Amino acid sequence: xxxxxxxxxxxxxxxxxxxxxxxxxxxxAYPFNVSGLPxxxxxxxxxxxxxxDCLGPSxxxxxxxxxxxxxxxxxxxxxxxxxxxxxxxxTVAFAPFVxxxxxxxxxxxxxxxxxxxxxxLGGVPVHIERREDEGWRLDPERLDALLRQTGxxxxxxxxxxxxxxxxxxxxxxxxxxxxxxxxGALLVVDELFSFxxxxxxxxxxxxxxxxxxxxxxxxxxxxxxxLRCGWVLGSPQLVEPCAQAFDLLTVNPPTATLxxxxxxxxHTRQLDEYALRAAEQVRQTLAATEWGEASMVSxxxxxxxxLKLPRGWTSEQAVSVLRExxxxxxxxxxxxxxDDHLRVGFAGDGYDPAEGCRLLASCLNRT
Length: 367
Ligand SMILES: Cc1ncc(COP(=O)(O)O)c(C=O)c1O
Known about the structure:
four-stranded antiparallel beta sheet; about 15% strand
């Protein structure tokens, strides 16, 4: 191609983790790269779909879904947009509120979709640090200082957190929300891991404030990734511009997906227990492993943890050696912000997670 015929394009930072995740070599004996559960099939019976169930218009279905979902998640009466997974929810929730050239506060470490989306929309991501020596908690005072320093009016966080699996406690949540309100800012909370907290989980963050949008999906804890069903929930004033952004992107959620997703809401006890059981098993397995020089903050909610490597490893090196020697597939921590960490996740059967952890620890603790 000559310089004259090159097509002009704007440059944006790709979402490197997702590109990597899509090309992971299949067949690992210990697929510790996962962060969501497989479908709870065949115990979950959502019935079959007839062609008539797949045809639009879907307005009635959509209204029924949002009403039922909002009630189940502790935000009855909320407005909502149903989108194609939490990924689209991030863009739809950010699109109306990211201002060109203005700061957007996002976490570090993090699953970087919020950061990349903010930048794609013209915002300037600014990190709020979660620190390992503080148990990866979100510090309201640090947020307050950063809001004062940058004048940011938009913050995006994930709770429970990816990659560490830790949750924000009730008192800290209230303090964070008060801080956001005091600064007249908007907080977008990606809550797609919340189903791992089981049926007794707290209501969505949006329940406590009209300065908060909550987003989520059926992907992780409920194992229904293939439905590609996600949402943005909050007050009508906040959700309306998100719905306008969605009009540009997808027009309507697929009727077939909505039909099955609405049916899934009749099985939430089963789905929540499925998620909670998996999270508890992971906590037990991790607690029973001798980690040696490797270490981690015990995850509270979810099936993922962020493992600190013994000195001397880079995350790519560790991932490659673990895969070659033991068939363990982990995720390099540099995708989330730390090259001296790995993200490990445990889902599904067909392998013994305790044995996988034992192999992982013994391999990493080599001298
Ligand atoms: C924090 C976070 N947000 C969003 C997503 C994307 O979820 P979905 O598959 O529902 O689009 C993921 C997937 O790993 C995630 O970890």
